[in-house]
Structure formats: structure tokens, C-alpha cells
Specification:
One of its GO terms (cellular component) is cytosol. It catalyses: beta-D-fructose 1,6-bisphosphate + H2O = beta-D-fructose 6-phosphate + phosphate. By secondary structure, this protein is an alpha+beta fold. It has nine helices and 15 strands. An eight-stranded mixed sheet has the order 4-3-5-6-7-8-9-10, sandwiched between helices. Strands 12-11-13-15-14 form a five-stranded mixed sheet, sandwiched between helices. The structure holds 2,5-anhydro-1,6-di-O-phosphono-D-glucitol and manganese (II) ion (MN) (3 copies). One manganese (II) ion (MN) binds next to β5.
Length: 332
């Protein structure tokens, strides 16, 4: 078992990726290249987001995506940019995206990897200048090289992720990712156009005191969920809900806390999507010492059935998630 890889604060992302690769004598460099492609896509999307108000790409497209959501122009821009970067990088044979109904064949059949993306997370915050994000999961393809990617390549349980992460476009832009040896966060330096290691080996507190829940859903949820919310209130935990999963998760990971999106009357399977929202964050949470569960199962153990499947999500500091699951189990 390899030691968790650490590097000094301020190490440039490219250098970090290269040094990490040196620890694996048989590594071919393909995953390293794919991570660089993702960092490039993040820089491009970051640029688009920063000038959205000036370049006329705020607002809605006027169409619904496959989720039945009102698609925003930036959802589409981020989707197109990200997919283009992955196609040009040539390390990905297949992509699934929140914004695309079907599996995308990148026509790089020699590539070993498939990627699942939420190109822009927190759509409802785009037009009001509140933080949004990008989420990604990387898997090794299951079918033979030199054949087109299939659903079998995409529908893998989250525990088989090779790497996962997110980009947070906030007061500063950050790339946070893990290849299974701890979680590292990099902050973007716009004048240099480079990410630098700012948050090495992130660990989540076991006992958090922040809960992130859309309170308007309170009467749409089960008794167990309401009991958990009452528990948080009685203990005077801080209620913090941005409405961008990436931002809420990031804050809770750094400060200790828990995010929950349970099943509701409207979203009977929960709202968040397993393949490109829950799995990546569950991978990071566990790598940071936290926990991620659906109603009964560990998120990373769920066998996906469809590309856009939704699941309830309880994610964050270990003891908070355990407490919540216990109250759900006790429910009448
Ligand atoms: P997306 O913008 O990628 O469709 O994701 C929206 C998600 C997530 O970011 C957020 O936590 C959640 O929707 C908020 O949902 P509610 O508005 O129902 O609280
Ligand atoms: Mn999302
Ligand atoms: Mn999205
Ligand atoms: Mn959406």
C-alpha cells in the first residue's frame, strides 16, 4: 500500500501530478494526462463563468434537459467545453454528462478511461453570482480497447472510481481531487493560469456542527429526516445551504458538517444524480475520513441501473451521518 502522497504547499498542479506518477513505476502517464485535460477544462469554464455577465451567456436556453430542468446557457457552454477538452486530450473513450441523454462516444477507442461529469453544478445560482462547480468521476473502461464504449463501461459502482474530484468557482477557484491516496486541494492563480497546492491531505472532522438541507422540503420528507433536523436545531448546529452541492460539500469538508438531500414527495428517489454528483463526492468524503450513504447503502456500493439515476444522499462528517441514519432506522 502506497503512503499518502504529500507535497509542499505551493507545488504547481502539473508538478504534483508528475511527482505522483513517479511513485508508480508501471504508470503509463495516461491518467496524468487525463487529469491535466480536466484542469484545462476547468480553466476554460472558469473563464466563461467569470465573464458570463458581459458575454451574454447568462440566462436560460429556453429548453429542458433530460432531467426535466430548465437548462441554463452556461450549463450548455460548460458541457461543450468540457467534452471538447476530453476529446482533444484523447485519454477518454466515453463520457456521460448531466446535460446529455446518452453516452457520448469520443471516437478515441484506444483510450482506457471513461468519465462522468456534471459540467456545471448549482445552475440556479449562475445568474445571481453565487458559487457554482463542476464534478467529475473517472473509471477504467471495462470493454476491450479499440471497441466503441458501451453502457457496461459507464455503469460501474462508485467504489471502482480511479479518481474523482470537483472544481469550485468561488471567491477563488479551486480544484479538489483524489486518486485514492487522500484528497488534495489546489487554488487557481489567474495571473499565472495555474493551480497550486493549497490544501494538502484534507481531512473531515468526525463531529460536524453544520447541517445543509433545503428547509423548504421539511414537510415533504419522512419522520426520520424531520427528527434529524430537530436534532440539529436542538444542538444549535448552524444551518447552511447554498444550493450548489459542490459549495455546500466543500464547506462541510473543510469545517465539518453534513449535507442531506433525502427522498421527498416530489423527488421520490432523491434529487441528486448517482453517476455524476453523488459518486465523486462520496469518493472524496471517504478519502477524507467522512461518510456517504443513501437510505440504507453506502453510496459507493450502489450498482447503477441507468445513467441519470437519482438517489437520496447523506454525506459529510462520519458521526453526523451515522446519527442521521440511526434516526432513519428508528422511524416508525
Ligand atoms: P445542477 O445545477 O447540476 O442541476 O445541480 C443542482 C443540485 C445541487 O447543486 C444542489 O445542491 C441541489 O440541486 C439543490 O436543489 P434544491 O434547489 O431542490 O434545494
Ligand atoms: Mn449538479
Ligand atoms: Mn449541473
Ligand atoms: Mn441541472
Amino acid at each position: 500500500m502506497l503512503e499518502k502522497f504529500t507535497a509542499p504547499i505551493g507545488t504547481a498542479l502539473d508538478r504534483f501530478i508528475a511527482q505522483k506518477q513517479e511513485q508508480f513505476p508501471f504508470a503509463t502517464g495516461e491518467l496524468s494526462q487525463l487529469l491535466r485535460d480536466i484542469a484545462l477544462a476547468a480553466k476554460i469554464i472558469n473563464r466563461e463563468i467569470n465573464r458570463a455577465g458581459l458575454s451574454g451567456i447568462e440566462g436560460s436556453v429556453g429548453e429542458e434537459n433530460v432531467q426535466g430542468e430548465n437548462q441554463q446557457k452556461l450549463d450548455v457552454v460548460a458541457d461543450v467545453r468540457f467534452i471538447r477538452a476530453l476529446i482533444k486530450g484523447e485519454q477518454t473513450c466515453g463520457i456521460i454528462s448531466e446535460e446529455d441523454e446518452n453516452l457520448i462516444d469520443t471516437k478515441n477507442p484506444k483510450a482506457k478511461y471513461v468519465v462522468a461529469i456534471d459540467p456545471l453544478d448549482g445552475s440556479s445560482n449562475i445568474n445571481v453570482n453565487v458559487s457554482v462547480g463542476t464534478i467529475f468521476s473517472i473509471y477504467r473502461r471495462r470493454t476491450s480497447l479499440n471497441t466503441p464504449p458501451t453502457l457496461e463501461d459507464m455503469l460501474q459502482p462508485g467504489r471502482d472510481q480511479i479518481a474523482a474530484g470537483y472544481v469550485l468557482y468561488g471567491s477563488s477557484t479551486m480544484l479538489v481531487y483524489s486518486t485514492g491516496y487522500g484528497v488534495n486541494g489546489f487554488t487557481y492563480e489567474p495571473s499565472l493560469g495555474e493551480f497550486f497546492l493549497s490544501h494538502p491531505n484534507i481531512k473531515m472532522k468526525e463531529n460536524g456542527e453544520i447541517y445543509s438541507f433545503n428547509d423548504g422540503l421539511y414537510y415533504q420528507t419522512s419522520e426520520g429526516i424531520r427528527n434529524f433536523i430537530e436534532h440539529c436545531r436542538k444542538n444549535q448546529y448552524s444551518g447552511r445551504y447554498i444550493g450548489s452541492l459542490v459549495s455546500d460539500f466543500h464547506r462541510n469538508m473543510l469545517k465539518g458538517g453534513m449535507y442531506l438531500y433525502p427522498a421527498t414527495k416530489k423527488h421520490t428517489q432523491g434529487k441528486l444524480r448517482l453517476m455524476y454528483e453523488c459518486n465523486a463526492l462520496a469518493f472524496l468524503a471517504e478519502q477524507a475520513g467522512g461518510m456517504a450513504f443513501s437510505d440504507k447503502e453506502r453510496i459507493l456500493d450502489i450498482m447503477p441501473e441507468s445513467l441519470h439515476q437519482r438517489v437520496p444522499l447523506f454525506i459529510g462528517s462520519k458521526n453526523m451521518v451515522k446519527q442521521c441514519l440511526q434516526l432513519l432506522n428508528e422511524e416508525g
